[in-house]
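User: Quick one: structure for sequence A, then sequence B.

Assistant: Sequence A:
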Amino acid sequence: MQQTQKTKGETKACKRLNAIGSSKPVWDALVARLLSRGLLDASFISGPDNGLAGLSQAELVDCVKRAVHGPVSWRPVGTEDTFEPRVTRSLVVHTHPSGDNTPIFDVKAVPDGRHLLVHSGHTLECWDMQTGTKIWNSPQSATLWRLGDFAFEQQEVGTLNFEVFELDIRGAAVAARQLCWFEIQHVPWTVKIASFCGSLIAFTFNEAYSRMFLVDWRGSAGIVLFLNDSYKQREVALTQEFLVLALTRDSGSIQLRVVNLASEIIQRMVPIHQRTMLTREVPDYGVSVLDPAVPTQKVARGRPDGSDVIMQRLAVFPSVLSDEAHRIWLVIVELEPLGVVPSASKLHGFSLSSTSKSTGMKPQLGVLGVKTTLPPRHSNLASSNWMVTSSGHQCIRTQTMPDAPGACCILHPEGATGTFNFLPRGRPIMSSTASSACIHVEDETITVLYFD
């Protein structure tokens, strides 16, 4: 009798859960939340009131599936090991940065799915993709600028200048506001990349200098972190709470380290001013003195045959289904003995939970698994041509002959492969992680490809 009553209670609970999951307002709220967090491209919502009122429940569910798993055509059918990516529509934007036919250096998609940040060597512009019009541009500079993640930085010999702008693109007119400007002097290294998250920017330098410079631009503070000589490669990513480091030792072993920003880094920062001398005024801290927020994860060991192993990409994305978690993808490429041809790539997946605000539970790092994929032998190993989307798809530009049509290979997280071609002489493909749209640049023309 007790077992029967328990079964009935479980059945009632399941019915209530099914009723909640079958409620359209629940899916309305979830999709609205994904849009507000920049995890779903608004260009896929076509009805009034941000499209939600005009979408059926099945269409809302498809939007969530797209955010989690990527486009439908990027998924194999059954046990097939290939698939055919289908472009359903495209947008073409004709731009002339600086008004003088200067070629485009870089393009980034704004998470709302409706705007592009475009830069030449001397200006940064914001374009409305739907109308194909330029709605804002930065003041022109006489020196070369590089575009970071919704910030842009200027680099001269021995000097690192960076600014942060806020663009309000909600109205018909764009309101631009400069939030900060710094000129960091006595920089003896060449800046390689910048990672931007909230009030923090992480600058890393070329491989010869095992240092990174972290800046709290709102708090006007900074710190330099260095690695010891046994590390030959590092990748860096920022979240609101953590610094995520993927480190390769000389032996070929790779580890994943997660450090709490508030307790381990921000409290060690020193004040910086607009003309700070980096090597004189900002002290170095070894990464080894920072306590990890979660146990350090050993991802790979050196290969006994001596062939090379490289970290191709570290990518960290907010979780689609939780505001207090992130998904981490780490791509490791194994090279054939000559060191130039990939023999396999391994996609390592992790789930990183933040400190729970409701329960106080400490951060946790869960392993999602390791999948071996087989990239084309003619894959372009340049990091700018090898991207990972939030769904775990790898987008790889393949090497082609001059003036031949370009090609992009898409690797499904489970190993299936799809390819598509684009116009000859085009610049590298860049992927919008929110929609898995691909951006193709050729001369002054930008083409955004949307997949079914």
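Sequence B:
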Amino acid sequence: MVGGKTLLVANAAVQQKLAAKYDTPVEIGYPFQTRLALGKSNEMEQQIVLWNINLDVNAAHLFTLFLEKMATNPQLSVIILQSSEQQRQQLQLQFLEYCQSQFAILQDFSQAAQMDVIRDHDYQPILKQMKTKAGTEKPSQAVVDGLNQFFRLSRRLQFSPSLTRKLVLEYFDQARLFVDLTEHPEAFLQVQAISAGIPQLTRQESPYMHAGENGQLAKDDAGLMAGLSTYLDTLTYWNEALVQNVRLIEKFSSERLIQYWEGQQSGNV
């Protein structure tokens, strides 16, 4: 509320929804400030995508698309942010089934040991089973190679169900791309993407994501795959988004936000 008369929200979609429901004026406000903290992802061989799912009901389907992209891009890693326990278990099982379809040698090992690898990156149970099965013999090269491939793939998927400020700063410092395909993208994380200079994929535009400038719309499967290719396959469009993000860093700086709020209070905005 401003002066007890206006409700401030973070994006246009929420503004339209609440304006239709309440008589109170609803305006877009900017509660989070940017900071100049450009990341170093363009210097890294690994391409980290931060995917905020936050109770997204389409997460299981979208995950199949990420797996498809991971299959063709060995540098791609995905960190899944703010998943519920149910979502996390579902996606981990989905990932296990995908791995089993890729590595036939996994049928010789217990599902529990495989899940230890996926869930905790704990390789000891499955390595112990490998040694037990081999007995006094040396494990075959095919088994060793298969397990190593499984281990490498598992390290490219990470879950971060809860976020601390330290984790957010660490993730965005290394991320190449931020993806939030929920109905209302999380403004705080969008601001972190701007501060780090990385592009965004969302289902709708907002004050923090302007399609064709610092990100792209991904309203369907084709849009998601196109967006991933745009920002991961080459740095051309990524660099263009970086330039736009630097401009937005200035727009949402603490000084500019103070001016905005002062204008709200005086009625000049």
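The beta strands are 7-9, 26-28, 47-52, 76-81, 157-160, 175-180, 200-202, 215-217. The chain has three domains: 7-31+254-266, 34-82+162-252, 86-146.

User: Thanks, that's what I needed.
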